[in-house]
Amino acid sequence: xxxxxxxxxxxxxxxxxxxxxxxxxxxxxxxxxxxxxxxxxxxxxxxxxxxxxxxxxxxxxxxxxxxxxxxxxxxxxxxxxxxxxxxxxxxxxxxxxxxxxxxxxxxxxxxxxxxxxxxxxxxxxxxxxxxxxxxxxxxxxxxxxxxxxxxxxxxxxxxxxxxxxxxxxxxxxxxxxxxxxxxxxxxxxxxxxxxxxxxxxxxxxxxxxxxxxxxxxxxxxxxxxxxxxxxxxxxxxxxxxxxxxxxxxxxxxxxxxxxxxxxxxxxxxxxxxxxxxxxxxxxxxxxxxxxxxxxxxxxxxxxxxxxxxxxxxxxxxxxxxxxxxxxxxxxxxxxxxxxxxxxxxxxxxxxxxxxxxxxxxxxxxxxxxxx
Length: 371
Prior knowledge:
Elements: H1 3-6, H2 20-32, H3 45-74, H4 83-93, H5 95-124, H6 129-148, H7 151-164, E1 176-181, H8 187-194, E2 212-217, E3 222-227, H9 241-253, E4 256-262, H10 271-284, E5 290-295, H11 302-312, E6 316-317, H12 326-343
Parallel strand pairs: 1-3, 1-4, 4-5, 5-6
Antiparallel strand pairs: 2-3
């Protein structure tokens, strides 16, 4: 398995997790039809009954244990997750909480195994069919009682896996552009313009409730473009789970950040707060190149655009509605991506491809963003 596949969403590989009710019903059906293997020597009636009762207890325990252990086994190893998926997992479910849940499920499986051994020994100590039946019923009652102790835990894992499966695949071997900014600045519209991503677009804040990936053809490779939920101007520790997903994507998978501003009357966040947010990003992610984009220029007067240049010193003026400035922006963004690929060690394998000189900037060249 190559590096890219190993770093795609591991939770999508998790097969169906059965709720406790299904585990119990299936295991009892299997145990009811269980019979002991035929012995070579002739057995007494009591010995045959004892052997069948032991087979039923053993099969019931084994079926339940197998399904509980399978839940633990199919859940991706948290310690081996890519940092991006690990942080998302922590945000949605809490890593410590998940480990405790998996530990409790494993513990119940071990207890059932222990009780199985104990009750089979009790069956060996009696030759009375009625007592044998009582021991078998006791086994069923104790097993069910134990499994029900993790009923809530298993329900929680099922809900968690369902949420985590919606997190897009991320391929660490591909260059990634993360589009960030305040709510309703046009991030989703830009991602739609330059990639295959199809985020919902709305005229209200926080339309994007989760991370959305798109892909962008760079001729010799593909870039990932990420639409992130909107951020608000407040300390990272005070941000909600939607905003924290944005921070996780910026922290772990961004090779270039496109930060979008909106100074129109439609803005969800005042000019000053957007600047504070931008400075927060710069401070927390100093190693990641940032391209500043002013959107919705179709709604701004020439004077307002000039004032924005003074206060923001943006690299591009665009309108995702009228497409103004989009062609020039995409050309320069591709050049910036090519430069990242050439200078970043993790993309060394991509550089083994033969790339035309006009698509790669020399490391000593300065990127020039025309407005």
